Amino acid sequence: MIKPLFHRLKRPLMAAFVGASTTLAFAPYQMWPLAILSPLFLLLLLSKQSPKKAAWIGYAWGLGQFATGISWVHVSIDTFGGMPKIASVFLMTMLIGYLAIYSALFSWSLNRFFPTTNRVRLLLAAPALWLVCDWLRGWVMTGFPWLWLGYSQIDSPLANFAPIGGVELLTLLLIICAGAFTYAIEQRQWLHLFIPGVILATGYGLNAVSWVTPNPESTTKVALIQGNVDQAQKWLPSHRWPTIMKYTDLTRANWDADIIIWPEAAIPAFEFEIGSYLSNLDSAARMNHSAVITGVVNQGDDKQFYNSILTVGETDNGEYSFDVSKRYNKHHLLPFGEFVPFGEILRPIAPFFNLPMSSFSRGAYIQPNIDANGRHLAAALCYEIIFGEQIRQNITDDTDFILTLSNDAWFGKSDGPLQHMEIARMRALEFGKPVIRSTNNGITAVTDYKGEIVKQIPQFETGVLKADVVSTTGNTPYYSVGTWPLYIWVFLSLVIGWRIKE
């Protein structure tokens, strides 16, 4: 009895272990070859299995990947969300179980429609189906495209494909490499190992291509304030003004910067509550020919709450006035962090779903760039930086930089902030625009247009990062075209694969 059970569970258990190892491909470990080896072993485990068994193997792989890869989510809902331990564990189990559905869907569909081990299955169908499932995960219920395999390649030769097709193209190439290795191993067709060799060599070659050109004449002096405010005390009424004055004092010492940037929700109050203070800050910034950008929580005339970005000082908006419509208001909200999916149903049933800061409304998908001291910044608040298409559509011909404000204090000393920074670096490389990232307790950093971190300050310390940021001219192919070529490639791959499958 035990032996047959172990035999049935052997492949799913191996898949769970392989899936868990995938996390090591991402920051802070950055063992990028694992992003090829992990799907390679998954494809080997799926070989000659029924669609039903394949689905369980794929589901186990997903459980392993997300149980280890997004454990930082539990820190926010357990440590800072105030949930009972049993409730937070239950919620995390549900989230991980849901995300694993997509790797199960990939595995089932691959073995259902392309069961024969051949080139069609491994070089056309598998990469196409993998992208389809990733796209679904990044779209259903507002999407959660975290841990797309392509992000792990930010420091590998494959990173040079990002300006051509974004993180999706990197993911596609990884699965093609994994498929080629799988075919070579299963069929003893070793010449197919040239496929990953050619892909990696092309990646090296693309390093010499410059899609955009730095413009030194547009250098901007920025100062990023990392307040390192204790998340557990930040919203206490007694800490409101000490927190605000901490940022004020650090700002006062850096008026020589063109733009001073505070992190997400740096001001622990609704904007309408501190109008006089913001008017004074606006006047001081103008007097010093500077601009201050800060995250702030807003409540509009519609009584809806918004996670916003406010600019005072040298800006096209004129002198400060309270107007939520002239703020950047976050569009993509973090599930369970900023909104509760199906909240109208869940909140009455289980009061523990009434998490702090979980009732925000969405801003528009496309919003004007932030204007600060003559510079134009395409904004992304925290979690939004993972949505590359949203960033792409918010970049204009006038955009100088990508700006992302975050408060990763919610995630403690977990891998979350490091993975978050890795994703921000990918956005810089995709669009050929420097990324300016200001956070409460790290990682506060500036990247160049190639996604390389040019300056950062340590986590969990109060500090100011001062840097000269150079904007660029020109556009990358990915910015100009987006993901449409990959949509077409996936469609043709599945159609051709279905027609010629053996």
TrEMBL record:
Compartment(s) where it occurs, according to its Swiss-Prot or TrEMBL record: Cell membrane
Tree of life domain: Bacteria
GO cellular component, one term: plasma membrane
Transmembrane segments: 29-47, 54-74, 86-110, 122-141, 161-183, 190-212, 478-498
One GO process term, biological-process aspect: lipoprotein biosynthetic process
Pathway: Protein modification; lipoprotein biosynthesis (N-acyl transfer)
CDD domains cross-referenced by the UniProt entry: ALP_N-acyl_transferase (cd07571)
Record InterPro entries: Apolipo_AcylTrfase, C-N_Hydrolase, C-N_Hydrolase_sf, LNT_N
Enzyme Commission number: 2.3.1.269
One GO molecular-function entry: N-acyltransferase activity
Family annotation (PROSITE patterns): CN_HYDROLASE
Main location: membrane
Membrane topology listed for this record: Multi-pass membrane protein
Domain CN hydrolase, first and last residues per copy: 225-471
Keywords (A to Z) from UniProt: Acyltransferase, Cell membrane, Lipoprotein, Membrane, Transferase, Transmembrane, Transmembrane helix
Gene3D superfamilies the record matches: Carbon-nitrogen hydrolase
Family that this chain belongs to: Belongs to the CN hydrolase family. Apolipoprotein N-acyltransferase subfamily.
Functional note: Catalyzes the phospholipid dependent N-acylation of the N-terminal cysteine of apolipoprotein, the last step in lipoprotein maturation.
NCBIfam families in the record: lnt
Record's protein name: Apolipoprotein N-acyltransferase
Species: Vibrio sinensis
Gene for this chain: lnt
